[in-house]
Design a protein that fits this description.
The complex is a heterodimer of chains A (744) and B (153). Chain A is of the alpha+beta class. Chain A folds into 3 domains: 220 residues, Aldehyde oxidase/xanthine dehydrogenase, molybdopterin binding domain (Aldehyde Oxidoreductase, domain 4, 2-Layer Sandwich), CATH 3.30.365.10; 150 residues, Aldehyde oxidase/xanthine dehydrogenase, molybdopterin binding domain (Aldehyde Oxidoreductase, domain 4, 2-Layer Sandwich); 322 residues, Aldehyde oxidase/xanthine dehydrogenase, molybdopterin binding domain (Aldehyde Oxidoreductase, domain 4), CATH 3.30.365.10. In chain A, 29% of the residues lie in helices and 22% in strands. In chain A, the strands form 7 sheets. Chain A has a 7-stranded mixed β-sheet with strand order 9-10-7-17-14-15-16, with helices on both faces. In chain A, β5 and β6 form a beta hairpin. The N terminus of chain A is likely disordered. By secondary structure, chain B is an alpha+beta fold. Chain B has 2 domains: 73 residues, Ubiquitin-like (UB roll); 71 residues, [2Fe-2S]-binding domain (DNA polymerase, domain 1), CATH 1.10.150. Chain B is 39% helix and 14% strand. Chain B is built from 5 helices and 5 strands; from the N terminus they run ββαβββαααα. Chain B has a 5-stranded mixed β-sheet, with helices on both faces. The longest helix of chain B is centred in the C-terminal third of the chain and has 18 residues. Chain B is globular. The chains are: A alpha+beta (744), B alpha+beta (153). Bound molecules: FE2/S2 (inorganic) cluster (2 copies). One FE2/S2 (inorganic) cluster binds next to loops of chain B.
């Protein structure tokens, strides 16, 4: 089984629209033809869970709302369609595995192919309540779990009904074993492929409630150690990313984007560039200047000679990251600050009035860059008088992209084909598709297929960042030592990002006022793995420790008290302490820090062990322990890998990462000045996934938010000083060491 | 005109001799397993073996490869190469996978020079970047490959 089955054919496509793949939507194979089966396929099973509110647009003979997840050929090969992006999180194996589980497929005979980009059929509505193909927010397994189980069970049912007819026996006398139907009374056995050859799809499919789904104890794929299907291609170099796609006649494009977001080119030396060797087009765009040429190095060279005069009126021109926090702090202090409520509970004014002590602290978070290892890129090809557009891209949001391309070109969405490719990292950056639209624009203007590539410098300087933010915390404690009042004001860019994770749904604090003061820097901001959770949990979990320290309470016991209403959360916290030396022993020169975090419906608590390298003022994280409750785990080893990755990315961002901005321009340019964690600084990591029969919840991000506060709490245990500005790089550590006391 | 071999194949490159070897490998020879990550020698995604030496191909002009032999991820052979790739699967190392060709080229090089590396040796040799955070598994896979390589030879 080749891993490249996940992409369209193996290796380089032989031409535009000539992708020899079994996947259905590519290059003119209509969904209808796919559903009817194509040459060499005796049977195409077109059924599945009807997405609520979805409708099948074409497909004569196929009822509205019926989707297609599975195809079985005569040889018994079961093709299962994967609707989500694969960016290393493993969902392209996990989702087909869920279908295979309920249909009792032989996993060795399962092939995985990308589904068409048809959100009404293959999308989910977990995020905005309407169907989208959007791989974000650790939602994939959670959003598709029930539907794919039902789809798998329906397939199994159809196979059983057909087998009963073919064998002339009662339906009730049959059972299934992986890949086959059994008639135990006679010892007869029909492989799924044999049944499929002559199968008919019955008029009425059983509804979800009529189907028997497997109890958790009967799972033989879910929760077992099953290798991800994309691994092999990722160790032999054959896994295809969009940047690896070649088309006949394709040229290469780059764009010199405005150094300040929102600026436009006013004038540039077009003739000079156009005359350079191997350059075929110089293309003015609203936000930059595109150069297309016969090879990428020629385009890179030409770019060095490009001179552009940029407009100077973008709002970001007025923004300096250096002074922004002062501004944020003074705005936050204004009594009439135009805040938006994030959450509230009880009577915060009464809590203030009756508090025996009030604690306060501000926490700061810098801009952070995605640093996905594959720089943004896309390949676009347009053809015909009424253009058709094809796009090869690693996108977290292909259904949105498809619609945007149609709008950009003024063509029907049916004329736009998106060829999904592996993502060399997403982390939220690839759920916006500016780079896909740029490739289309260059291909349209240059009149050739174009591979658009961002350099690493482009990727950073024109990045969309996790917004910088200030968290202003205030807590009131009553005479008995209970936290009775909790205020949290989040100050920063982008309302849809910056306040996520600011709520404290598991802490039993009766009076809460959590709000957001939105600032507009003019910078481009974007979801970044765990979105607002990492900055907000940094503030919340540091502050809990600060209060505990001020009151001479044990931070673990204080959290136990706060989590008393949630047995699940308490268990996670207890497990983290149990599996680590927290509160038991500390090695000389080292200290431990604890933090708790939910991320949507998943829960974690983690402990880190750190030391301080005094001469360089750098923190080293030696060991990490993390307990996680994310419900049923579909792929346990992959879940652990996701925790490891999130922890490393979390430590990296907490210790090293900062984007600084002067007059709207980004200072950093490559990995030399935007460092990320390397092998030598990687800690030992132990993960405990808590056994659960609850529905699965997200695993892609939950391992990240606890890292910052756990490190800050360990640092306070080690030095008595508080780190209130992330990242904890040398300069912020030195400032913290000079601090003479708490803000508390 | 620059002549060299890639994975044993005689190759002639007629373009600009200053073209970084990375783009010759990817776009002239069509071997896409070698990746572009930073273009400045920082990330290691473009790592290849140039006449036996681990080299970041984004930093080397095509002219510097004249007469040399280039080995890419598609061409790694021998016990170390096979053991490393097998260990990578056993440990389920890759996540997004984009850095992994470079990681594997660096690991094979390390094991050629040092068949039983310590953790400190691995830290020194493996300076490639992985944003997905697969470092712990890379380390485990190198130790596994070292153990398997010992048995195989
Ligand atoms: S691309 Fe060569 S080291 Fe990053
Ligand atoms: S596996 Fe994604 S960058 Fe290493």
């Amino acid at each position: 089984m080749k891993a490249s089955e996940l992409s369209c054919g193996t290796g380089v496509p032989s031409g535009i629209g000539a992708c020899e793949s079994s996947a259905p939507a590519y290059s003119g194979i209509s969904r209808r033809r796919f559903l009817q089966g194509s040459a060499g396929l005796s049977f195409a099973l077109a059924l599945g869970a009807a997405p609520s509110g979805g409708s099948a647009k074409e497909g004569a003979g196929i009822g509205a709302g019926i989707s297609a997840w599975v195809r079985i050929d005569a040889a018994g090969v079961v093709t299962i369609y994967n609707p989500v992006a694969e960016m290393g999180q493993g969902s392209s194996t996990a989702l087909p595995l869920i279908v295979a589980e309920e249909m009792d497929a032989d996993w060795d005979k399962v092939a995985i192919a990308y589904s068409p980009i048809e959100p009404d059929i293959y999308g989910h509505d977990a995020i905005h309540g309407r169907m989208m193909m959007l791989t974000v927010g650790s939602f994939s397994v959670e959003a598709y779990f029930d539907r794919l189980r039902i789809a798998g069970a329906q397939v199994r049912h159809v196979l059983l009904v057909n087998a009963a007819e073919q064998l002339g026996v009662a339906l009730a006398s049959l059972s299934t074993t992986p890949g086959a139907v059994l008639h135990p009374a006679s010892g007869r056995r029909l492989g799924y492929g044999e049944i499929a050859q002559h199968a008919k799809v019955p008029q009425a499919l059983p509804e979800a409630q009529e189907l028997r789904l497997k109890p958790v104890g009967e799972f033989r794929l879910i929760g077992k150690s099953i290798l991800r299907r994309d691994l092999r291609g990722k160790v032999d170099g054959s896994a295809e990313f969009a940047i690896d796609v070649d088309l006949p006649g394709m040229q290469f494009g780059m764009i010199q984007r405005a150094p300040v977001a929102g600026s436009s080119p006013l004038a540039f030396n077009r003739e000079v560039i156009a005359a350079l060797p191997d350059i075929s087009a110089v293309i003015p765009l609203d936000h930059g200047v595109g150069i297309v040429g016969k090879n990428l190095p020629a385009v890179m060279k030409a770019r060095q000679q490009l001179q552009v005069e940029w407009s100077k009126d973008a709002p970001a021109e007025k923004f300096d990251s250096d002074t922004a926090f002062e501004h944020y702090a003074s705005e936050a202090a204004k009594g009439d600050a135009p805040v938006k409520r994030v959450d509230s509970k009880g009577d915060i004014a009464a809590a203030d009035a009756s508090a025996a002590a009030i604690y306060r602290a501000d926490y700061l978070n810098d801009f952070v860059y995605h640093a996905q290892m594959e720089p943004l890129n896309a390949v676009a090809a347009l053809s015909g008088d009424v253009p058709r557009a094809e796009l090869w891209i690693g996108s977290q949001f292909p259904s949105g992209l498809r619609a945007e391309v149609a709008t950009l070109l003024g063509i029907d969405i049916a004329k736009v084909t998106i060829h999904a490719r592996y993502l060399g990292g997403g982390f939220g950056r690839r759920s916006w598709h500016d780079f896909g639209l740029e490739a289309v624009q260059l291909a349209q203007q240059a009149k050739v297929p174009v591979k658009l590539v961002w350099s690493r410098e482009d990727d950073i300087r024109n990045g969309m960042f996790r917004p910088m933010s200030l968290q202003r915390m205030e807590a009131g404690v009553d005479a008995d030592g209970n936290i009775t009042g909790w205020r949290h004001r989040v100050v920063g860019d982008n309302a849809s990002i910056v306040a996520t994770g600011a709520k404290i749904p598991f802490y039993a604090i009766p009076n809460q006022a959590i709000d957001l003061l939105e600032m507009r820097s003019g910078m481009k901001t974007k979801h970044w793995r765990s979105v607002g959770y990492a900055p907000n949990k940094f503030a919340i979990e540091s502050f809990i420790d600060e209060i505990a320290t001020a009151r001479k309470e044990d931070p673990y016991q204080l959290r136990r008290k706060l989590l008393r209403d949630s047995p699940r959360a308490l268990k996670v916290l207890d497990e983290a302490v149990d599996m680590s030396p927290y509160g038991k022993e500390t090695a000389p020169g080292r200290a431990l820090g604890l933090a708790f975090s939910e991320h949507q419906k998943s829960l974690t608590a983690g402990v880190v062990e750190i030391s301080l390298v005094e001469d360089t003022a750098r923190i080293r994280v030696h060991r990490v322990w993390l307990a996680v409750d994310a419900g049923i785990i579909v792929q346990p080893d992959n879940a652990i890998a996701q925790m490891e990755g999130a922890i490393i990315q979390g430590i990296s961002s907490a210790l090293l990462e900062t984007v600084s901005v002067k007059s709207g321009a980004v200072h950093q340019s490559n990995f030399g000045d935007y460092e990320i964690l390397r092998m030598a600084d990687t800690p030992e990591i132990a993960i405990r996934m808590i056994a659960s029969e609850a529905p699965p919840t997200g695993i892609g991000e939950i391992g990240l938010p606890f890292t910052g506060p756990a490190i800050a709490n360990a640092f306070a245990a080690l030095t008595g000083k508080r780190l209130r500005h992330m990242p904890f790089n040398s300069s912020n550590i030195k400032l913290a060491m000079l601090d003479d006391g708490g803000a508390v | 005109m620059i002549e060299f071999t890639i994975n044993g194949q005689a190759t002639v490159f007629k373009g600009d001799p200053e073209t970084p070897l990375l783009w010759v490998i990817r776009d002239s020879a069509g071997l896409k397993g070698t990746k572009f990550g930073c273009g400045v020698g920082q990330c290691g995604a473009c790592s290849v073996h140039l006449s036996g030496n681990l080299t970041r191909s984004c930093l080397i002009p095509a002219s510097a490869a004249a007469g040399m032999s280039v080995v890419t991820i598609e061409g790694i052979e021998g016990i170390a190469g096979r053991a490393v790739q097998a260990a990578w699967i056993e440990e389920s190392v890759p996540q997004c996978g984009y850095c992994q060709s470079g990681m594997i080229m660096a690991a094979v090089d390390l094991l050629h020079r040092n068949p039983t590396p310590t953790d400190a040796d691995i830290n020194r040799a493996m300076t490639n970047l992985c944003r997905c955070g697969t470092y712990g598994r890379v380390r485990a896979a190198i130790h596994r490959a070292a153990a398997a390589g010992g048995q195989a030879s």
